[in-house]
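Side project, low priority. Logging it here so it doesn't get lost.
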Amino acid sequence: MRNPRATLLLFACVQALGSVEAVAEKAPFTPSPELRALFSARGDAGEALIDADAVEYFEGLPAQAKQFFNQAVEAELMSEPSHLQEILGLDLPVGKLELLMRDNCVVCHTDPATQDLETFFSSDPESAGSPPHLNLKEFASDVHFRRGLSCAGCHGGAPDDDMMADEIYERWPEAPARHEDRSWIAGFCARCHADPVFMRRFNPGLPTDQYAKYKESRHGLLLLGEGDSKAAQCVSCHGVHGIRGPRSPLSPVHPSAGPLHLWAVPRRRRLYARLPDSGW
């Protein structure tokens, strides 16, 4: 029999939660003077640097999402109108936007004022001159990002760090060595993907024996056994920033994608499959 007191308590909690959410939704937002200045900035010809679509998108955000922009400006992670336009121009759903703005790594690496082209995330890398794998739109669609795993998940550090953590340099192989010798990549991905306990938190149905199978595959034998760094490894097929599940039609490993799994391709070339223009 249901406990009447427990039922009343549950009802009270639900009512209270609803009240809190209602208050949060109606809470007023006041942009800081610095954020106002970014929105009102004008170019040399007097044109607005934040376009009307971006302004409309921002005005439609809940107060808690807008507050992330105040915080980014206050922390000096956002200081240029072009940076603000870049983020707003993504037109992300609120949940994705909040995930992105909670991550200091992303906010910092989308700032053209502080990043070299080699580390600059842009929604249009070709126009910006940054590497193609630093595509901000692709990153926002990444299966890891959508499940709450962002930069720190692979690179180390923490999303709220305001400085590059030593762990990043310790965990990540230095360039150009990491591009010349790719034997580290499969084991790097396996740090998470071969750990059943870790993977259960994010995708319990995903097999965790891929690395074991890869080591016995022809790709793995070439790369790990013969030291042939042209052999395909994880990112050769799945990509880097913008990885999607295999059921997504936009995934390069989806059956409809074609190029990576065309059996008409000579066998040796198939072993060297790599995404075009991925930088990897």
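Brief comment: DSSP finds 19 helices and no strands in the chain.
Revisit when time allows.
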